[in-house]
Amino acid sequence: MSTTPTPQTTVPLIIAIDGPAGAGKSTVARRLAARLGIPYLDTGAMYRAVGLAAMRAGIEGPVDDTAAQTVARIAETHTIELDQDGHGTRVLLDGEDVSAEIRSPECALMASAVSAVSAVRRALVFAQRKAGRKRGCVMEGRDIGSVVFPDASLKVFLTADPDERARRRQRDLAQAGNEVSLEDVKRQQHQRDLQDTSRADSPLHVARGSVVVDTTGMTIEQVIERLLSELSELRESSEPRLDTNGENTIRSRNHGGLVRGRSAPIEEESS
Ligand code: DC
């Protein structure tokens, strides 16, 4: 009888990080990707770019049915490119660098409004899957573990106390040159949490099989160490690979999701 082992399939390492604004997703995802030597993809930047294009087209949120058609056309026809320059994501909208402009609080709210339009989501999810599958990635957003890559190697839901999230957001905005009062940040955060968790299409929630990490009081480094240890546990529990495509592959045995860690509904931490 033949003892030739059956080759196993390997998939690029995809780490899905979801959670509300201010939970620490961007910094954690960017640094984790650098540590693992794989691309980082900030999907919120794509929704922000569509939001900016919509604002420029004179659309105001919330997006009604008529405006939804225009917004859908915007998402389908404009070119959005993301480029990592070592410090953050450079975002090009039809070749124009809009990296700073998309970080305004107005653009964040508009991004949240346009993200409720199904046709917008379809266009962006298609592009995200295509980009992520190429070389693997750490991808962050609101629906990565639930919709974009439900079979990601590791799915993480980052959350934090709403007051701490607002303080972090205010600091990030100030660093980008936007001075906003804590009260305003909290109001906008509450509005976005509500929109992002209650929309009909792909609402923000803890995807099945996610590891939930409450980052309140944790440093970025502590969060990264926690995720690296989740990853090495995952690798240890995988059988030895037969066909290695390099360091950053992991056996696809986790399709369907790991059921580990604590699962908590997002409603618990939206105030
Ligand atoms: O992560 P961010 O704050 O830059 O995201 C801006 C908005 O984009 C957010 O309020 C909701 C939307 N978004 C989404 O619906 N799905 C994603 N995967 C990422 C962001």
Features of the shown structure:
disordered C terminus, Rossmann fold, 9 helices, alpha/beta, 271 residues, binds 2'-deoxycytidine-5'-monophosphate, three-stranded antiparallel beta sheet, 10 strands
3D architecture notes:
The structure is a single chain. With 271 residues, the chain is of the alpha/beta class. It is built from nine helices and ten strands. The protein has a five-stranded parallel β-sheet, with helices on both faces. The protein has a three-stranded antiparallel β-sheet with strand order 4-5-6, covered by helices on one side. The C terminus is likely disordered. The site of 2'-deoxycytidine-5'-monophosphate has 15 residues, from helix 2, helix 4 and helix 8.
